Structures are given as structure tokens and as C-alpha cells.
């Protein structure tokens, strides 16, 4: 038997080997959004507000992508852990068909409903109109975005996080270079931002299609398997719906406090998404390693991974908080020169920084439970946090004119409820179910 110190080092290397490439993949998309926000922010307050509103609607595609990636990772990892790589890849094939279908449906939906959706989220008519124009172009990248999510899911399940790194990073570097060129020298303005977004997502999706074709797995759609994925993803779907209700409501309430408030909210929220997805790199490692360990019938290894990622997630959250606190006086200026937006951002910043250490633990434990297939519990606790915490508080903030602090206090309560619920579950036995399927 290996000494505990050797086992610890081996586990650390396995976590790092999966988490570090996943970190780049997870950070690439929100980093591009931050670049896009900075480029558009210098066009003025109305374009910045338009991207805030349009980006909130586009988060529907991200929501579906998260469902596909996380659901596919858990299913593929269990099959991979049980020694059946072919079955793990087959999960990716069917998830890719689901991604294409969903992407096309999203395009049709947004082309029809862009105007009423943006008017509902933005009180300023000019910002609503600009958001709808941006959204109709940006949604054309939805199929590529969802294909990339499905591809990331099955590749993480077979513990391959290196190829996704190059696929996603290359596409987003291309788009980050295109965005300022199309917005300014080409003179496309806000349209250039949307076109660059579509370019990144389409290239990334094509690369993941190429990767799955190289596996030589049967590529025909199997409706029964897709149906099973939809049924098993039901809890993730409902969990994601709770998040979407929170983000939509937060943006809608922030917009009613004025253009400067919604601009500052957009900056802080995109930084929050960036930090959360970066912290989620540890959760990706947990999904893959926990799923594989449970698929192989190894409860001890699954629990060891769960303990380790909880510690690593907390440490990473503290590190992000330190960096955010140090940049409080500098970071908002990167996105816009408008002093009224800076003043609103200063109000939000203490909430943003204070939540990061707790978020690190929450996202790590989310990964453990998703890898274990315990998404029913995640669904319930997320709904409790949203319906009982976040949503009532931000609508009270609107009713009593509490401004952005009320909105971000709601987000803090949402995070706290999930933290307590996950720690209780982590300490118990009910998430540990052995075998190739749950």
C-alpha cells in the first residue's frame, strides 16, 4: 500500500491535470465577454446597456450548454470508470445531436421574440432596440456554443481536458482579435461585437464535431438515448431555470435604477461569472474523478476527491477575492470611462469580493454532486435558495429603492443557502451510489 503522502500527491496531480486545462476552457468564454464588454463600453452607456440586456437573453444558450456539458460528463465518466470508453463517447454523439437541435430552435425563438424580450428587460427604449439588434446576430452562434458544450462534456468524462483547451482557446483568441477590429476600424459598432461572438462559437463547435468524428463512433441519432439524456437532465434543467430567473430578474431590476446602474451591474456580474467559471475548473475535475471512481465501485476514492476539492475550492476562492479587492480602483475603468458607472460599481464591489471565498467551496461541491449524479438534491436546494432568498430580496430592493446593494445582498443569500445545503449533503452517505449508472 502506498503511503498517505504519496497518495495525496498523486490525487493532487490528477486534480491539477484535469483542472488546469479546464480552467483555460472555462475562462476563455467569459474572458472574451469581458473583452467584448470593454470594447463596447467605450462606445457609450447605451451600447453597454444593450450588451448587458442582450447578453442576459443569450445566457439562455449558456444555460442549455451547461445542462449538456454537466449531464454528459457525469454519464460518460461513469461508463469510462467502468471500462467502456465506447459507451462514454456514444453519450457525446447523442448530446451533440441534442445540441444542434436546441441551437436551431434558439435561433428561431430569438428572431421572433427579440424585441419583446429586450423591452421587458430594459426600461430605456434606445437600449432595448440596440439590444434586440445585437441579439438577433449573436444568437446565430448558439449551435456552435452548444456543440462545444456537448463536446466538453464527453471529453471531460473520458478525462481528456487538453484538446478542449486548444479548441476553445483558439476560437476565442480569434474572436477577441476580431471584436475591436470589427467594432472600430471596420465601423460596424455593436454589430461587430455580435459578429465576433458568432465567429468564436461557430469555429469552436466545428472543432468539437471534428473530434467526435475521429472517434469513429456511430454518428446516427438514437432518439431513445437522447430521450434518456433529457429525462436525466431534468433536474439540471430546473436548477438552471432557477439561475436564469435570478439573472433575468437582477438585470431587469438593475435596469430600473438607471443606465449607469445596469452598466455597473453588467461589469460586476460578468466578473462574477468569470470568477465562478474559473473556480468551476476544480469542479470539472471533481465531476470526472468522482464519476469514474463511483463507476469503478471505489467509494473511498470518491470521498477522497470530494474532501480534496472542497479545500482546493475554498483556497481558490480566497485567492480570487484578494485579486478582486486589490483591483477595486482599477478594474471598472477598464470597461468604461463613465464616472457614474464607476460610482455604482464601487457600491457593488464589497459584496462581490466578500462572496468569492464561499463561492469557491460551493462550486467545488457542485462538481462532486454532479459527478455523483446527485442532481436532484442540487435542483431542490437551488430552487430553495432562489425562491426563498434571491428573488424576494431583489424585488424588495426594487420596491423600496435599495439599489444595487439590495440586488447583490440577494445573490449573497442565494450563495449562503447553497453552501449550507451542500456541506450537509457532503457529510452524509446519500450521494455515494456505486456502478456504471445511477
UniProtKB/TrEMBL annotation:
Main subcellular location: membrane
Keyword tags: Cell membrane, Membrane, Transmembrane, Transmembrane helix, Transport
InterPro entries assigned: DinF-like, MATE_fam, MdtK-like
Topology of the protein relative to the lipid bilayer: Multi-pass membrane protein
GO cellular component, one term: plasma membrane
Gene Ontology MF terms: antiporter activity; xenobiotic transmembrane transporter activity
Localization terms from the record: Cell membrane
CDD domains, sorted: MATE_DinF_like
Top-level lineage group: Bacteria
UniProt family annotation: Belongs to the multi antimicrobial extrusion (MATE) (TC 2.A.66.1) family.
PANTHER family from the UniProt entry: PROTEIN DETOXIFICATION 44, CHLOROPLASTIC, PROTEIN DETOXIFICATION 44, CHLOROPLASTIC-RELATED
Designated name of the protein: MATE family efflux transporter
Organism, as annotated: Couchioplanes caeruleus subsp. caeruleus
Classification of source organism: Bacteria, Bacillati, Actinomycetota, Actinomycetes, Micromonosporales
Amino acid at each position: 500500500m502506498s503511503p498517505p503522502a504519496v497518495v495525496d500527491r498523486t490525487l493532487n496531480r490528477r486534480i491539477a491535470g484535469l483542472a488546469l486545462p479546464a480552467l483555460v476552457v472555462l475562462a476563455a468564454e467569459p474572458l472574451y465577454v469581458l473583452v467584448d464588454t470593454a470594447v463596447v463600453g467605450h462606445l457609450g452607456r447605451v451600447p453597454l446597456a444593450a450588451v448587458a440586456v442582450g447578453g442576459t437573453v443569450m445566457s439562455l444558450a449558456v444555460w442549455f450548454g451547461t445542462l449538456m456539458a454537466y449531464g454528459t460528463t457525469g454519464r460518460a465518466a461513469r461508463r469510462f470508470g467502468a471500462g467502456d470508453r465506447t459507451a462514454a463517447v456514444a453519450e457525446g454523439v447523442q448530446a451533440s445531436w441534442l445540441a444542434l437541435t436546441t441551437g436551431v430552435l434558439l435561433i428561431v425563438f430569438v428572431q421572433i421574440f427579440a424585441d419583446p424580450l429586450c423591452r421587458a428587460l430594459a426600461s430605456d427604449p434606445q437600449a432595448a432596440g440596440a439590444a434586440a439588434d445585437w441579439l438577433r446576430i449573436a444568437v446565430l452562434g448558439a449551435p456552435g456554443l452548444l456543440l462545444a458544450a456537448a463536446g466538453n462534456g464527453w471529453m471531460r468524462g473520458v478525462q481528456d481536458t487538453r484538446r478542449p483547451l486548444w479548441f476553445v482557446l483558439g476560437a476565442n483568441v480569434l474572436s477577441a482579435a476580431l471584436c475591436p477590429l470589427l467594432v472600430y476600424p471596420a465601423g460596424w459598432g455593436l454589430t461587430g461585437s455580435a459578429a465576433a461572438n458568432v465567429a468564436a462559437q461557430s469555429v469552436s463547435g466545428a472543432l468539437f464535431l471534428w473530434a467526435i468524428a475521429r472517434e469513429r463512433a456511430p454518428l446516427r441519432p438514437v432518439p431513445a438515448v437522447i430521450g434518456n439524456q433529457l429525462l436525466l437532465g431534468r433536474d439540471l434543467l430546473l436548477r438552471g431555470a432557477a439561475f436564469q430567473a435570478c439573472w433575468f430578474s437582477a438585470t431587469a431590476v438593475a435596469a430600473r435604477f438607471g443606465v449607469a446602474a445596469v452598466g455597473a451591474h453588467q461589469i460586476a456580474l460578468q466578473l462574477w461569472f468569470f470568477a465562478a467559471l474559473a473556480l468551476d475548473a476544480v469542479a470539472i475535475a471533481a465531476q470526472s474523478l468522482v464519476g469514474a471512481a463511483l463507476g469503478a465501485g471505489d467509494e473511498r476514492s470518491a470521498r477522497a476527491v470530494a474532501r480534496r476539492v472542497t479545500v482546493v475550492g475554498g483556497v481558490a476562492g480566497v485567492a480570487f477575492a484578494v485579486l478582486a479587492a486589490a483591483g477595486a480602483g482599477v478594474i471598472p475603468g477598464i470597461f468604461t470611462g463613465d464616472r457614474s458607472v464607476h460610482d455604482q460599481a464601487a457600491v457593488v464591489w464589497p459584496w462581490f469580493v466578500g462572496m468569492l471565498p464561499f463561492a469557491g467551496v460551493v462550486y467545488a461541491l457542485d462538481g462532486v454532486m454532479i459527478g455523483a449524479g446527485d442532481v436532484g438534491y442540487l435542483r431542490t436546494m437551488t430552487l430553495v435558495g432562489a425562491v426563498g432568498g434571491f428573488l424576494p430580496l431583489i424585488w424588495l430592493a426594487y420596491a423600496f429603492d435599495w439599489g444595487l446593494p439590495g440586488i447583490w445582498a440577494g445573490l449573497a443569500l442565494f450563495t449562503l443557502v447553497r453552501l449550507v445545503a451542500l456541506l450537509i449533503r457532503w457529510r452524509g452517505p446519500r450521494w455515494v451510489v456505486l456502478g456504471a449508472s445511477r
